[in-house]
Every structure is written in structure tokens, then in C-alpha cells.
């Protein structure tokens, strides 16, 4: 079996590590990949949005399965283009990937099908948004409608901040065309939990829970990022929460998409807020989370390829998803200055230590080869992940492993999973 993974981050590295466990896979490619993925796959210099080149490459190499890791190519319709030439692809088609591609669409879907979420209004006219904010309750949340690398969300504590946010999103176009429409949403308080799920159009199988840390600095301070670390499972995702979401959120979302003529096959990522009024949906994503995949996939006992093929074939009801009875923590090592300006091309050392210890992983996000040397090539550079018997042990192990890796300007948060201590 020949597999092509599309993407270049830590999530795609975690997917590649999972795919490599299947004995049927004789050849793996990744476009464009990174220095870590190169251990498992032949990295191909084709960008994730170069659809014609990706389709041509998959045909030339007789690829049996394409796994699309990233949001942009899913929302852009890469799966449709692959299927049009008879290539099996994992991920939602364009008309279903809108679940992540448009926050306004997903909010309207939740409202229509009574899926619990925060109160909101959608705006295409900045002046109307400003007038609405004059009467709004603060704090309030502003969201660019489209894809913005996980950064298009502003929490505004005052009217002045909100007005500046409208200027930034809708007028200055800080997030480009993603800000043509803006969602204004009530601010919810509570614990955040991420639940990834496999979907085959009708059946849903949820994975173990996780929790991300979005802010750049300790204590949830600083700018929003793509994610600075995660832990799994979340001690706040109780049996009661799971039962509520099974009844009112998970299957309801899958059925709602089918009812709208947008059959969803692939991954639905549920971003949940555990409020005093019960769980509510913060957001949907249409792919594995990054860095959530880095703590969920290493704990998955069921073969990843088997589950992916069941999603494509509509036979997910025959699969029982199993996870190890343990925990995992991922600490992102970033380049100092991320998510704004940072240096690239800095040599990295220490990878050999991970080969000596079971249950430790170093997932590459922003890396590349400079000759034989691996160097930094992005804001989020590596995801250092470790397992443990429980969350506290996994956290201790992960932070110990961050010391193995050295590069100039290495930056990380020191409180990933600190919430565990309060559970």
C-alpha cells in the first residue's frame, strides 16, 4: 500500500508515525513534509495548496490513499479533486469542510439543530458590527469567519478593544479574506476540552479527550498561537460530560451535516467549553488538532489505517476504538518571538535521546534539513511528547525530555498541564 500525507507540521508527523505501524504500508510520501517526517516518508517538494501537482503526483506514483492533514487544502476541495480521478482520500469534501472553513456557517448550523453553543451574531458590514457592540455585554469574542491559522479570535474586555478588533479584522484585514465576515459571540467561562472523532458520514467514533493551551505565555497570557502544548486525557471530561455530548452534540452534528446535504467523512474536532450551564461547542475543526494529535494518536491502540479506511468505506460502525489506559503530555518548543517575528535556520541537537527511551516522542513541526543538520524552520519547532501512568507522571516526563533538545532561542511554556494539579 502506498500512502501520501499532505502537510508539514507536528500533526502530520504524528499521523505518519501512526501510519508506519501498519504492515500493509510499503511506501509513504509526504508533501511537503519536514525533517522529522523524513524518517518515515519520502518528502516531496509540493505545497499543500498545489492541487494539480498533488493529484498528478498521486496518479504517477499509483498512491492508494491520500491523508489530508491540513485545514486549507480540505476547505479548498483537495479531497474532491483526488476523488474525481479515482484516488481514495481521507478528509471531508469541500462542501463538508465548511464546518471549519466558515465560523458563521457552523454557528448557524448549531443554532438550527439545537446544538449547545454561545449566543452570537454574524456581520458582513463593519458599521453594523460597531453599532451592535455599543449595546453588547463585555467581555465579548470576535472571530474572523474563515481560516486564520488558529489566530483569528479576539477576546475583548472593553468597547474600545472591540472597536479596535473590528478595525483589525474587517477593515485592516489582518487575517485577509477570513475577515470578510465576522462572528461576534458571547464570552463563555469554564474549562476547555478538545474531543477528536472519526466520522464515516453516518457513524461517529470519538477519541480520548485532550486539552490545548493556545496562549503564547505562561498563565494563559500573550497572543493566541496555533497551540503551545496539550495533555490527554482531560480529567475535566467526566462520564457525565461525555454522556451529555453523546446525546446533544456528537451524533447531532453528523446528522445535521447529512441533513444539509453535506455528508461528512473524516475528522471532526469538537472544541468544547464546560460552562456552569453545561458543555457548549466553542468551535469545530475538520481535521486532527495540532498539537492534540501528538497526545491522542500515540495512545491509540486501534490501527490508524484500518480506522481511516472504515471512514472512507462507511463501515466505521464495525470498528471499536481503543486507547491505552495512561496519559500523554506534549510541550511545544518554539522559536522565541513566535507567533510574531522569529529567527529561522538555527541548528537543533538532542534527537538521539528519544531513541533510547520508550514512550517519548519528538514530533517535528517547523524543521528542515540544512545539509545533514536539522535546523529550525518555523515558529513552532517541535512537540516533545511523553507518556506516563497518569497525567502528573506524563507531565514530569515531557518536561524532562524538553531538556534533551537544544537550539538557540528555544522557548516554551512551563505550565502545560498545570490545570491537572487542580483536578
Automatic annotation (TrEMBL):
Q: What is its EC number?
A: 6.3.4.13
Region: Disordered, residue numbers: 209-228
Q: What class of enzyme is it?
A: ligase
Carries keyword Nucleotide-binding? yes
A GO MF annotation of the entry reads: metal ion binding
| Residue ranges of domain ATP-grasp in the record | 107-313
SMART domains documented for this protein: GARS_A, GARS_C
What InterPro entries does the database record attribute to this sequence? ATP-grasp, ATP_grasp_subdomain_1, PreATP-grasp_dom_sf, PRibGlycinamid_synth_ATP-grasp, PRibGlycinamide_synth, PRibGlycinamide_synth_C-dom, PRibGlycinamide_synth_C_sf, PRibGlycinamide_synth_CS
- Pathway membership of this protein? Purine metabolism; IMP biosynthesis via de novo pathway; N(1)-(5-phospho-D-ribosyl)glycinamide from 5-phospho-alpha-D-ribose 1-diphosphate: step 2/2
Q: Where is the composition biased (Basic and acidic residues)?
A: 211-220
| UniProt keyword Transport, yes or no | no
* Lineage: superkingdom: Bacteria
User: What does the similarity note say?
Assistant: Belongs to the GARS family.
Q: From the Swiss-Prot or TrEMBL record, give the protein name.
A: Phosphoribosylamine--glycine ligase
Organism, scientific name: Hespellia stercorisuis DSM 15480
Amino acid at each position: 500500500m502506498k500512502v501520501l500525507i499532505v502537510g508539514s507540521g507536528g500533526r502530520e508527523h504524528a499521523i505518519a508515525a501512526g501510519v508506519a505501524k501498519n504492515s500493509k504500508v510499503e511506501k509513504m510520501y509526504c508533501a511537503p513534509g519536514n525533517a522529522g517526517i523524513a524518517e518515515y516518508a519520502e518528502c516531496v517538494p509540493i505545497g499543500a495548496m498545489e492541487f494539480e501537482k498533488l493529484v498528478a503526483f498521486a496518479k504517477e506514483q499509483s498512491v492508494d490513499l491520500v491523508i489530508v492533514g491540513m485545514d486549507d487544502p480540505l476547505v479548498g476541495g483537495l479531497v474532491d479533486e483526488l476523488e474525481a480521478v479515482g484516488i481514495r482520500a481521507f478528509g471531508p469534501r469541500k462542501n463538508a469542510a465548511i464546518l471549519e472553513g466558515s465560523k458563521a456557517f457552523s454557528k448557524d448550523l448549531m443554532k438550527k439543530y439545537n446544538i449547545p453553543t454561545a449566543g452570537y451574531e454574524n456581520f458582513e458590514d463593519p458599521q453594523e458590527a460597531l453599532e451592535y457592540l455599543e449595546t453588547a455585554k463585555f467581555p465579548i469574542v470576535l472571530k474572523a469567519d474563515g481560516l486564520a491559522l488558529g489566530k483569528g479570535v479576539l477576546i475583548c474586555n472593553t468597547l474600545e478593544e472591540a472597536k479596535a478588533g473590528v478595525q483589525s479584522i474587517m477593515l485592516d484585514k489582518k487575517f485577509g479574506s477570513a475577515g470578510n465576515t465576522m462572528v461576534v459571540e458571547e464570552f463563555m467561562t469554564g474549562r476547555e476540552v478538545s474531543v477528536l472523532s472519526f466520522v464515516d458520514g453516518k457513524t461517529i467514533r470519538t477519541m480520548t479527550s485532550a486539552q490545548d493551551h493556545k496562549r503564547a505565555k505562561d498563565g494563559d497570557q500573550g497572543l493566541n498561537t496555533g497551540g503551545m502544548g496539550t495533555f490527554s486525557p482531560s480529567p475535566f471530561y467526566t462520564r457525565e460530560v461525555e454522556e451529555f455530548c453523546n446525546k446533544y452534540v456528537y451524533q447531532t452534528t453528523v446528522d445535521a451535516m447529512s441533513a444539509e446535504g453535506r455528508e461528512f467523512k473524516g475528522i471532526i474536532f469538537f472544541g468544547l467549553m464546560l460552562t456552569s450551564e453545561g458543555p457548549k461547542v466553542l468551535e469545530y475543526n475538520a481535521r486532527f488538532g495540532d498539537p492534540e494529535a501528538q497526545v491522542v494518536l500515540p495512545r491509540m491502540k486501534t490501527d490508524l489505517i484500518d480506522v481511516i479506511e472504515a471512514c472512507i468505506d462507511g463501515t466505521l460502525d464495525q470498528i471499536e476504538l481503543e486507547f491505552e489506559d495512561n496519559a500523554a503530555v506534549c510541550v511545544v518548543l518554539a522559536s522565541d518571538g513566535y507567533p510574531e517575528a522569529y529567527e529561522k535556520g538555527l541548528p537543533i541537537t538532542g534527537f538521539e535521546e528519544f531513541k533510547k527511551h520508550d514512550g517519548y516522542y519528538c514530533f517535528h513541526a517547523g524543521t528542515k534539513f540544512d545539509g545533514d543538520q536539522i535546523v529550525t524552520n518555523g515558529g513552532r519547532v517541535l512537540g516533545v511528547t511523553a507518556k506516563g501512568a497518569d497525567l502528573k507522571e506524563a507531565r514530569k516526563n515531557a518536561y524532562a525530555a524538553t531538556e534533551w533538545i537544544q537550539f538557540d532561542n528555544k522557548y516554551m511554556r512551563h505550565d502545560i498541564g498545570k490545570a491537572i494539579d487542580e483536578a
